[in-house]
Design goal:
The protein is built from seven helices and no strands. By secondary structure, it is mainly alpha-helical. It has one domain. Helix 3 packs across helix 4 and helix 4 packs antiparallel against helix 5.
Length: 191
């Protein structure tokens, strides 16, 4: 399927657009600062976790929509991608905010650390879902992990560079979508 250039282009375009929408909507609803949830519930840990649920859920739902169209052999368990995205986002966001500032407070290393933790957890949690649950039937699922790490490092560098303003969110989403989309087309591929 992905050997056909037109199909790969269509997948990549849908992947980028869906991720940008999912990430942007997720950020508007659930980001730690300047979101609907933080405005309503404040900045307590439970409020942040609730925000993470919405943020991760929006990303997972957007990705699920594209996978459903382009990974036809994954339909039966693909819905599991959404809760895995929520789990990955909660674990990644909470661990990164707890751990990384204990290691460094310099902006660039901080951004890289956040990207490693968030991307690493997104990659590992989704890979585990692919490997053990069969959420996404892919040939080389292990490549999802480094793709997520690289994507989130780039996104966090952009985010820190723009002080995580809501206007910069589509750029973060674009970075994540381009890197992970290319990885899906070139390495991961459907079975």
């Amino acid at each position: 399927m992905f050997n056909q250039l037109a199909v790969s282009r269509r997948f990549l375009l849908e992947w980028i657009l869906a991720n940008m929408v999912g990430f942007t909507v997720g950020s508007l609803i659930g980001a730690t600062d300047f979101s609907l949830i933080s405005g309503l519930l404040g900045s307590s840990l439970p409020a942040r976790v609730i925000g993470d649920v919405f943020f991760g859920g929006c990303i997972g739902l957007a990705q699920y929509w594209v996978f459903r169209r382009h990974f036809p052999h994954s339909h039966s368990r693909l819905i599991g991608w959404i809760p895995l995205s929520i789990i990955a986002f909660i674990l990644g966001a909470r661990l990164a905010t707890w751990l990384v500032p204990r290691i460094t407070i310099d902006e660039v290393p901080l951004a890289i650390g956040f990207g490693i933790v968030l991307g690493g957890l997104f990659g590992v949690v989704h890979w585990a879902g692919m490997h053990w649950i069969g959420t996404l039937k892919a040939k080389r699922a292990i490549f999802w992990i480094p793709a997520c790490v690289v994507a989130w490092i780039i996104a966090e560098l952009i985010g820190f560079g723009f002080d995580f303003s809501q206007l910069s969110v589509p750029l973060l989403a674009l970075a994540i979508a381009v890197v992970t989309g290319i990885a899906l087309v070139v390495w991961v591929q459907p079975e």
